[in-house]
Write a structure and sequence with these properties.
By secondary structure, the chain is α/β, with parallel strands linked by helices. It has 17 helices and 26 strands. The strands form 6 sheets. Strands 4-5-6-7-8-17-18 form a 7-stranded mixed β-sheet, covered by helices on one side. A hairpin with a 4-residue loop joins strand 4 (112-114) and strand 5. Helix 2 packs across helix 4 (94-101) and helix 3 packs antiparallel against helix 4 (94-101).
């Protein structure tokens, strides 16, 4: 199973996946070999304790080391908000989170892990957030690449996604920005800084809803650098506690960041901010301008929603949405221009503040998705993690440009993709060299790429196939060698064997053509012999005989004498 997330837009049973699609009774362990988690965002791991501890799964769960470190922290935050603040039931407990994480096996980048006798997985760098990985999953000759969320563009704290040219049977890719091609990153950064600066200059407050790790760090680095350069004194705040945790993990997993941060890390840790301080809830109604990074990123709960409620009715204030918002969240509603937002307990938020959307999202845009397909060369593409209308547009583009099968299945829909299995066969080096040293076949004499016909015995032992030299196999099995020959007679116009020998030498310049004392002609194992003793005026009966090893040469000569004799004589 690839990822196990929750839906941000729902607070009822729809928030978790419907596992009855897998089984209606019993544990999931019997039906799943393993679970792979691509990264720590809740829409990819939020239902993990529910699945493993409440539904029941005892098998291995694979994720990278940074994901394993950060995932339980975000799950616990999510549990606190849902259970302790909202009083929700049928939810996983803190103990369940710990028990779930005990089943986790960590994966390193480019490390091949053998899950069982047939299944193997390999992780690749995905950008997006700290520890995010794409996975190449193989069973025999068939393979699938699952991207999770990925970003083909490097940013201020992470590098770009990368994978081998692995040519999988199927590529399952996210399509969050299926129809978007982003503008220059520098222009976006300049626009962001300008808007923040203009708002605080006029005495307004800026709310930037973010998830604890990821875009938050990128935008913090951006504002920190700008504040230092402009010598600004307006306070910048970050959700208390999460800054320290974020810094700790970025220091711990510095190898997952981009080249610049790795190179300057010894002199200065980019994540130790001078201008950004921890935020206290009491600051919400403080007078004067301020910039606040608050979680979560889609304004669907928590501190970011609480601050938004307080600041929304002031025209001086601004909210900047730096990433994608799932349909149904408050973030999605304000981006769609809604001015009255209904909330729990029958209240309504009157939206008067400025709403800005700037895509600092760490998802690949349409150009990035096409770039990955071009590099990966899959035989089929499956689009997930997107909106139906936009996915349909991208599907047409993929089919048109790459000519591969492209699918966008709905939840609960199965798709069937046929694959042509490739069977690997071993071959002794001496047999290979001997075959390559042989002259090319007749049909290949005028071709630039000359094929070679292998003659050998296919041997199967220990579930492996290999081609062996027939003589070796006969010797090993103590079986007498039998020769199979094909013999046929063809009528040709009267001609001396000497003349025929000369013309065949011209035709088969790469072969040894011998004229025997008895008047027969030998070309390898192919024998040409006149079946009458006397040359008469009427047609000659020419016997053509060849061994099965030289089937192509023998049959080509036979058809040349039968159908193209005049052409042969004119060479």
């Amino acid at each position: 199973m690839l990822d196990c997330g929750m839906h941000m837009g729902f607070n009822d049973s729809r928030r978790f996946p419907d596992f009855s699609y897998i089984t209606r009774s019993g544990k999931l362990t019997e039906h799943l070999d393993c679970v792979i988690i691509s990264h720590f965002h809740l829409d990819h791991c939020g239902a993990l304790p529910y699945m493993s501890e409440m539904v029941g799964f005892d098998g291995p769960i694979y994720m990278t080391q940074p994901t394993k470190a950060i995932c339980p922290i975000l799950l616990e935050d999510y549990r606190k908000i849902s259970v302790e603040r909202k009083g929700e039931t049928n939810f996983f407990t803190s103990a369940m989170i710990k028990d779930c994480m005990k089943k986790v096996i960590t994966t390193n980048l480019h490390q091949t892990i053998q899950v069982d006798n047939e299944l193997e997985i390999k992780a690749y760098y995905a950008g997006h957030v700290l520890g995010a990985a794409m996975y190449h999953i193989k069973v025999g000759a068939d393979s699938v690449v699952y991207t999770g969320d990925f970003n083909m563009t490097p940013d201020r704290h992470l590098g770009a996604a990368w994978i081998d040219k692995c040519r999988p049977n199927m590529l399952i890719t996210e399509s969050t920005y299926a129809t978007t091609i982003r503008d220059s990153k520098r222009c976006r950064e300049r626009d962001f800084l300008q808007k923040v600066h203009e708002c605080v200059e006029k005495g307004g407050k800026v709310l930037i809803p973010v998830f604890a790790l990821g875009r938050a760090q990128e935008l913090c680095i951006l504002l920190e650098t700008f504040w230092e350069r402009m010598n600004l004194k307006v306070p910048i705040y970050f959700t208390l506690g999460l800054t320290e945790k974020a810094n700790h993990y970025y220091k711990l997993f510095i190898t997952w960041t981009n080249q610049k941060i790795k190179e300057t890390f010894v002199k200065r840790n980019m994540f130790e901010f001078q201008h950004i301080k921890g935020f206290d809830r009491n600051y919400i109604n403080n007078p004067g301008p301020m910039v606040v990074f608050a979680t979560p990123g889609m304004l669907h709960a928590g501190l970011s929603l609480q601050i938004f409620k307080q600041w929304a009715n002031n025209e001086k204030n601004m909210v900047i949405m730096p990433g994608y918002c799932v349909a149904g969240t408050v973030g999605s509603q304000i981006l769609n221009g809604k001015k009255k937002i209904p909330i729990e307990n029958g209240g309504i938020i009157d939206v008067k503040l400025s709403v800005q959307y700037m895509s600092f999202s760490a998802h690949a845009d349409a150009k990035g998705i096409m770039q990955l397909i071009r590099h990966c060369e899959p035989k089929n593409v499956v689009l997930v993690h997107g909106e139906a209308g936009k996915m349909k547009f991208l599907k047409e583009k993929i089919t048109q440009e790459f000519g591969v099968g492209c699918f966008m299945p709905a939840n609960g829909q199965s798709i069937r993709v046929e694959s042509k299995p490739s069977i690997s066969v071993d071959m002794p080096l001496n047999l290979l060299k001997r075959t390559m040293a042989q002259k090319g076949e007749l049909s290949d004499l005028l071709s630039e790429k000359r094929s070679k016909q292998f003659h050998g015995v296919l041997v199967m032992s220990d579930d492996k196939l290999r081609i062996e030299d027939p003589k070796k196999v006969l010797n090993d099995l103590d079986i007498k060698d039998h020769e199979i020959r094909f013999t046929s007679t063809v009528s040709i116009p009267p001609v001396s064997m000497e003349v025929l020998h000369t013309q065949l030498e011209k035709m088969l310049s790469d072969h040894s053509v011998l004229l025997s004392p008895d008047g027969s002609i030998l070309i390898g194992s192919v024998l040409l012999k006149c079946s009458t003793d006397e040359e008469e005026e009427e047609d000659l009966k020419m016997l053509v005989s060849w061994s099965y090893q030289e089937e192509e040469l023998g049959s080509t000569l036979f058809h040349t004498l039968k159908n193209n004799f005049d052409s042969l004589m004119q060479l």
